[in-house]
Design brief:
It contains five helices and nine strands; from the N terminus they run H-E-E-H-E-E-H-E-E-E-E-H-E-H. Helix content is 38%, strand content 31%. Strands 1, 2, 3, 4, 5, 6, 7, 8 and 9 form a nine-stranded antiparallel sheet that branches. The chain has one domain.
Length: 208
């Protein structure tokens, strides 16, 4: 009997929490204000922008329910390129999905998936991607205010807490990638970590 009562209480708490999060989503959607992610500077530490920003296209904007998508390439001092993608979901988070789903939909195969520390800041999700003869290394993470994490569910928790306590919190997904060259994956991921560390300082200054 005691176990039954505890189970009922847990279910009630879960239902109330879910309802609260749903109400927070609705309230946030009603007062959503856009942000210009394109204010991210063309220089990020030692990395400089290479070429113009890429327009993701109307199909992707409609799919993600946002036009605040930044796709840009940066060049390292060594000449290697890093592609940056930022999907700014604003205060609703409806635009945020698991990047793996989108990548598979674009024809990529995920060879390895794990966690990778980015300096002393946070752990990003680490992906080894293959499409035909192309092999890329990628890192992604989420940002809600000052909370950074490569875990989708942990970011959802941060967002819900911010919404319930402050009534306003914006989230974004950040993904960076680079081709794996003859020096192997380890070198590619070291490059991404270095860029991610320098990018983190920029994001804290330019994106809420």
């Amino acid at each position: 009997m005691k176990r039954y009562i505890i189970t009922i209480i847990i279910l009630l708490i879960t239902a109330i929490s879910f309802a609260s999060i749903q109400r927070a989503h609705s309230a946030a959607a009603a007062k959503k204000t856009p942000v210009n992610v394109f204010n991210i500077p063309s220089s990020v530490g030692d990395y400089t922008q290479f070429g113009d920003d890429v327009d993701p296209g109307e199909d992707i904007k409609e799919q993600l329910e946002t036009s605040a998508i930044l796709m840009r390439t940066y060049r390292a001092p060594t000449g290697r390129h890093v592609q940056l993608t930022i999907v700014y979901a604003g205060t609703t988070r409806r635009s945020l999905h698991f990047p793996e789903v989108c990548l598979v939909g674009q024809g990529w195969e995920i060879g390895e998936q794990s966690k990778m520390p980015v300096g002393f800041f946070f752990d990003a999700s680490k992906l080894s991607l293959v499409k035909g003869e192309r092999h890329d290394a990628a890192l992604y993470w989420f940002k809600t205010r000052d909370n950074l994490t490569g875990n989708f569910f942990e970011n959802s928790w941060h967002w819900a807490c911010e919404q319930l306590t402050t009534g306003s919190a914006a989230s974004a997904m950040i993904r960076i990638s680079t081709p794996v060259l003859n020096d192997g994956e380890e070198s590619a991921f070291l490059l991404l970590e270095d860029f991610a560390v320098q990018l983190t300082h920029v994001l804290m200054d330019y994106m809420e």
